[in-house]
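# nightly structure sweep
# worker-07 picked up a monomer target from the shared queue
# config: single-sequence mode, recycle default, output format = structure tokens
# input follows
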Amino acid sequence: MGDCFWTENIGQKESACGKTALTNGYAMGGYDGTFYSLIDGIVFASDTSFISLTALSVPRVDAAGACSTTRGYALGGYDGTGEVVLIDGLIFASGVAFTSAAVLSIARRQLAGVSSSTQGYALGGFNSSGYSSVIDGVVFSSDSSFTSSAVLSIARDALAGASSSSRGYAMGGTATLDAVPQTVIDGVVFSSDTAFTSAAALSVRRSSPIGATSSTAGYVMGGADGTTSLASIEGIDFSTDTTFTSAAVLSVPKSEAAGVNSNTRGYAMGGDDGTNLFSSIEGIDFAANTAFTSSAVLSVARDVAAGCQSSGVAVGGGGGGGAL
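# output follows
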């Protein structure tokens, strides 16, 4: 579930991905039959892999990823016994783990994560009570919880997130009424804390697609249409509120990967095709509108990890996160 962190551009729907140098993409947690607390990923400039010395406080899957300028957050998820309200992650500069004083208002998994310049949001999700339309999260400066007055237009899980400077987008997912993948694009307007539903929709029904954000658009890569895994890539243009289909396609159909982005590329890290787990990292080059496969790979092939990206920091050494 990929997104950026933002500078304020009042009246614009452009992300700050192109204005702040993004350096590392992180995959937090995940599953291969074992629940992981591992944090690993990619150094964008060198196209190389890393393993963080730190780990999530609780091994889990299906958390939402969000980013401030200083921290990567994993919000909610499932720990093998139930959904959690936990928010934790890592501090980019030091590589040290943290557990936030903030918690989600409702425990749930399979959420979308988006970020404004001031807050990390968890959108939708699922728990034992059913599908959720709730939008909540963490205020970065105060490390406190919030619950938005906005709600999704359709309660659903397995959705992808993207962020412009003014809006957080929830794309696709699986909904309550028909339990099949959706094409809807909706979300939250950051400044007014109100909901919106785009006039545009995805061209293909997608459950568990991978989200990424460029300076001008939000992307969904892969996913599943209810019958088969997908390799296609499409998205929404922030300025025109219209959708497009990219000429780029993933090298293999996949879903449930961690989505992150650099200033120039959107990445799908790990994931599965319904049968096989992947450690590969691939995605889309924004300017060229072409696909790529990275020479970097995750240290463990797995799916349903949370994604975030950092700026201006180095990765603090090699080593292992915990796998419990």
